[in-house]
Amino acid sequence: NAGVTQTPKFQVLKTGQSMTLQCAQDMNHNSMYWYRQDPGMGLRLIYYSASEGTTDKGEVPNGYNVSRLNKREFSLRLESAAPSQTSVYFCASTTPRVRAEDTEAFFGQGTRLTVV
Amino acid sequence: GQQLNQSPQSMFIQEGEDVSMNCTSSSIFNTWLWYKQEPGEGPVLLIALYKAGELTSNGRLTAQFGITRKDSFLNISASIPSDVGIYFCAGCSFASGTYKYIFGTGTRLKVLA
Predict the structure, then answer these.
(1) Cβ(B90)–Cβ(B25) below 8 Å
(2) Neighboring chain A residues of B2 at a CB cutoff of 8 Å
(3) pLDDT in tens, B41-60
(4) Confidence of residue A102 (pLDDT cuts 50, 70, 90)
């Protein structure tokens, strides 16, 4: 059981380039999230998808787009990368509450993105 | 954007010492979660708290859900070198069909052998 898988693990982009970060979960979770982590800032929500077919903006959505391709996959796209988007990106998933334990979000290992 | 106030920001402690960290918020949460992140990895859940006033232990870890639902603390007893990492609190509320997680800024723990 792989949990949440992110690809790639590392990426270097030039300013203005575009790329897509991939995330897949095999836990049959309904909700998926994209966070960015910057030093001293904790984890900030970029976009989330409550269920297949829906996406919503989080705290810091500017410069990003997302696609919930199916229940398993949630991708994050940078259309024109900027140095301010240098960060570590985490995907997470969870599922609407059936049990209290379903509150727990599971994270991928992260994608370390550098924009030069 | 909303973030939780987590303190301390960093700690250097001797092996064997106890550690305490806490999170406070201006908002009420239904659930509090504590995560640990090691270098190069994603956050991993340590403890989840579901009821106000709840005190939960997981080995050397003890966490409490504040009675006001606006705060939580995490204690680590008898620290060991592998406790090194960044600890995050997260408040969770349910809205619009999904969970919303707000994270603290993290407590970076270093244990000196």
Answers:
(1) no
(2) 59
(3) 899 999 989 889 999 999 99
(4) low
Quote the pLDDT of residue A108: 94
Q: Is the CB of residue B67 less than 8 Å from the CB of residue B55?
A: no
> In 3-state terms, what secondary structure has residue B83?
helix
Residue B77 sits at φ, ψ, to 5 deg, of -95, 150
Which among A8, A22, A114, A7 has a CA at the least distance from the CA of A75? A22
Residue A35 has pLDDT above 80, yes or no: yes
Mean local confidence (pLDDT), B57-65:
94
- CA-nearest residue to A90 within chain B is B42
Strands A111-115 and A87-94 turn out to be antiparallel
Tokens 């070198």 identify what position?
B81
User: Quick one: DSSP state of residue B46?
Assistant: E
CA separation (Å) from A71 to A27, A48, A108? 10, 13, 16
Amino acid at site B50 = Y
- With a CB cutoff of 8 Å and minimum separation 6, the contacts of B82 are none
| 3-state class (DSSP) for residue B38 | coil
Closest approach of chain A CAs to the CA of B79, in angstroms? Answer: 23
CA gap A53, A25 in Å, rounded: 16
Closest by Cα among A31, A28, A37, A60 to A47: A60
Phi, psi of B83 (to 5 degrees): -75, -10
CB-nearest to B92 from A96, A103, A106 is: A103
Quick check: B42 and A109 CB within 8 A?
Answer: yes
